[in-house]
Inverse folding.
């Protein structure tokens, strides 16, 4: 059975691709063009009622929300490929904690930067300098916490690469690339070393190759 | 060992209390007053570097982010109290999916309503009617998806009460109470029946009693 992943060209689906590559799970991709509104067709809304990416189909099992999908495969294939959850329930708790931090502290200001700098004027977004400045200020505070954390452990949840680190990769590659704010990573010694490490993993290079 | 829960009087920590009651786990609470800034003291920031609630301490294990904490206890005490994860990994995938929907689709507009209607002018929030109207419009769309989903299964992840339902309770009790928008729930037949069901669970009544 090959896992079908909808919408590979955007950052959230790339979380899923990264996970599938790390777990050595075969998959195929189904392009969904957000700018053409392919995520709002009745067929797509049957799969994902909010019109968001990604969705996976695995036989007759359908699942959406990237962080739910990566948790599912990390658990289902725990002993295959890279272990992304840690050895104990306590490790897994910390993986989930930092995955929530990514979702609630790191992602929202970064998404604003991506939308207002990279995607305006698509999706009706008018570039707003105040939103950009406020989002950068918020992200600086989050990165300062990361710098402290990563001075004490090699990865966010401990001394092992996990879903928490993986989940940061696709949008952070926008930050250091087309968003043009690489200095936010580079001026923090431990964040910079962490980013160099996780963004040079073969899984990410493979995902970039698939999506180019 | 008794679990120590910081910050019980607010909605996010109540997710944790609800889970601990459902799982029949003993706990004690440590009040943290956000309005007095007790979440920004050096000691508190050692526990939770972003100054958010809740945090738990369980022996020498510290964990923050309410949805990470409830996942940890639901898994650690899988066979004690109410099973909040479902029987299979596929059930658990759907629980996580709807928990992510709660976090990313349902919670942000509801939090805006709570902040601008209930908490202004605390925390420097100036009541903004445009934010209130836009947030209500977004929440209506989410509730329409819930109405469809709950017409097909009794609870969000299937025919069993789970973390996904539980996570909605504390903030939705603000929506139908002090926010003054009970009609958003009541005018949707299946959402209304679901809310009556989950909000009358003994666990929630006990949490309200603890926090009154």
């Amino acid at each position: 059975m090959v896992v079908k992943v909808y919408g590979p060209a955007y950052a959230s689906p790339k979380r899923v691709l990264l996970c599938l590559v790390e777990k050595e799970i075969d998959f195929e991709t189904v392009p969904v063009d957000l700018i053409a509104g392919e995520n709002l067709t009745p067929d797509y809304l049957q799969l994902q009622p909010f019109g968001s990416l990604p969705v996976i189909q695995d036989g007759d099992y359908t699942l959406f929300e990237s962080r739910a999908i990566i948790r599912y495969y990390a658990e289902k294939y725990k002993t295959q490929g890279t272990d992304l959850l840690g050895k104990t329930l306590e490790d897994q708790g910390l993986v989930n904690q930092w995955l929530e931090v990514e979702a609630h502290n790191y992602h929202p200001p970064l998404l604003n930067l991506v939308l207002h700098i990279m995607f305006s004027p698509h999706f009706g977004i008018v570039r707003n300098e105040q939103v950009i400045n406020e989002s950068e200020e918020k992200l600086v505070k989050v990165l300062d916490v990361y710098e402290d954390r990563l001075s004490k452990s090699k990865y966010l949840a401990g001394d092992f690469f996990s879903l928490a680190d993986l989940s940061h990769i696709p949008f952070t590659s926008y930050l250091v690339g087309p968003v043009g704010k690489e200095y936010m990573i580079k001026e923090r010694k431990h964040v910079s070393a962490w980013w160099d490490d996780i963004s040079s993993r073969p899984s990410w290079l493979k995902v970039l190759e698939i999506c180019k």
The two ends of chain B are 25 Å apart (CA to CA). The first helix of chain B runs from residue 11 to 22.
